[in-house]
Recover the amino acids of this structure.
């Protein structure tokens, strides 16, 4: 049995097609992803809202308004606003209308992304004026909501102070009390609902690893075809030996899994180190998940390869078709396909159970974003259960094969 394992492993390592699909393909595709997604994650990060403020005499006279704006625009991790100060409303409107990324604001900043401006009217009440045309689900719409919330909070605080002044003027003599009322509230609080901050690009790498793992099925298919007496001379010699078919299948499966997992681990290391993709610091758990994924892929290849009287090239084409279709519904082929995959998963949750590429991607997703490994265990169990079914069918097919002559 050990000799069968060694012989199968050496024979597979001489197969050029194995390394093309199982190793070279994910390396090339991950390199393309690295160039395509180089700045996508940075663009998706929250940035301070770019606004204009009419800093005239009325703005300075509005109690606490300038202090609040200064506090919210102070550089640092908690910066909420990026303020451009202008002298008049006409200048603010002109600044808001400017769309050239290269044009400069009066404070030396960029006009790009100025979503609105704040101006104080003759009655001393600040108002928000936003740029029109923002779609409801756009970034501009969200930024405009932030600006409106800031001003609404200021007006609420000021109204509270006025009510206190009318009812108990002596309370305003307490400096601590006044400071508490005028203290700029935290308009937004940043919290993490997942273990790691969500990233736009990581899901594509999850789908890529799912596709790369499934391409490992080629090793199982080639190995089992080489073990069939009617398809190869090596299989004919093994059939005449003392090793049972069950042991031959187990050794062949083990060698196929070892090679496909080794290639997948190299691809993961390349994505992790060379492409600079951070999987949340759980590399060990990711490798365990990829080991289970490789086992499933090998079992799939073994099942397809166990079919008798079918040319090896046709079997390879069938496997390639299964991998490509599975990767399609895992969202590998771009944003529209990713949205289609999400819609299908929501409408038909059972599809995830029968799609190995989706299961692999979801396993990696759960490792990165969930605090515990409960969801990961569930996905791994699905992978192992699918593997067991595929192996059971493969074993039945192999044990029932009979040959009139070799």
């Amino acid at each position: 049995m050990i000799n069968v394992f060694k012989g199968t492993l050496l024979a597979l390592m001489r197969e050029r097609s194995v390394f093309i699909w199982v190793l070279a393909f994910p390396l090339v595709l991950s390199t393309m992803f690295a160039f395509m997604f180089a700045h996508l994650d940075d663009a998706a990060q929250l940035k301070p809202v770019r606004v204009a403020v009419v800093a005239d005499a009325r703005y300075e006279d509005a109690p606490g308004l300038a202090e609040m704006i200064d506090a919210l625009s102070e550089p640092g991790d908690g910066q909420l606003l990026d303020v451009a100060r202008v002298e008049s409303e006409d200048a603010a409107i002109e600044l808001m209308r400017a769309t050239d990324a290269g044009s400069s604001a009066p404070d030396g900043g960029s006009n790009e992304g100025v979503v609105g401006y704040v101006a104080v009217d003759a009655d001393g009440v600040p108002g928000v004026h936003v740029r029109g045309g923002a779609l409801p689900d756009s970034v501009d719409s969200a930024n405009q909501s932030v600006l409106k919330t800031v001003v609404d909070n200021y007006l609420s605080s000021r109204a509270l102070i006025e009510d206190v002044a009318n009812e108990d003027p002596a309370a305003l003599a307490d400096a601590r009390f006044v400071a508490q009322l005028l203290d700029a509230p935290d308009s937004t609080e940043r919290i993490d609902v997942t273990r790691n901050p969500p990233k736009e690009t990581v899901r594509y790498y999850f789908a890529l690893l799912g596709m790369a793992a499934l391409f490992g099925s080629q090793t199982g298919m080639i190995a089992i075809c080489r073990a069939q007496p009617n398809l190869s001379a090596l299989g004919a010699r093994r059939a005449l030996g003392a090793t049972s078919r069950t042991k031959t299948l187990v050794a062949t499966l083990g060698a196929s899994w070892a090679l496909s997992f080794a290639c997948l681990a190299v691809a993961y290391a390349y994505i992790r180190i060379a492409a600079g993709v951070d999987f949340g610091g759980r590399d060990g758990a990711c490798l365990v998940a990829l080991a289970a994924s490789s086992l499933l892929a090998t079992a799939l290849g073994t099942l397809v390869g166990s079919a008798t009287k079918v040319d090896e090239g046709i079997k390879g084409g069938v496997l390639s078709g299964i991998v490509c279709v599975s990767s399609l519904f895992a969202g590998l082929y771009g944003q529209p396909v990713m949205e289609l995959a999400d819609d299908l998963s929501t409408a038909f949750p059972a599809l995830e159970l029968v799609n190995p590429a989706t299961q692999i991607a979801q396993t990696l997703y759960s490792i990165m974003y969930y605090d515990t490994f409960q969801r990961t265990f569930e996905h791994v169990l699905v992978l192992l259960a699918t593997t067991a079914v595929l192996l059971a069918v493969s074993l039945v097919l192999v044990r029932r094969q009979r040959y009139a002559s070799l």
In short: The CA atoms of residues 90 and 288 lie 62 Å apart. Confidence is low (pLDDT under 50) at residues 99-111. The first strand starts at residue 49 and ends at 54.
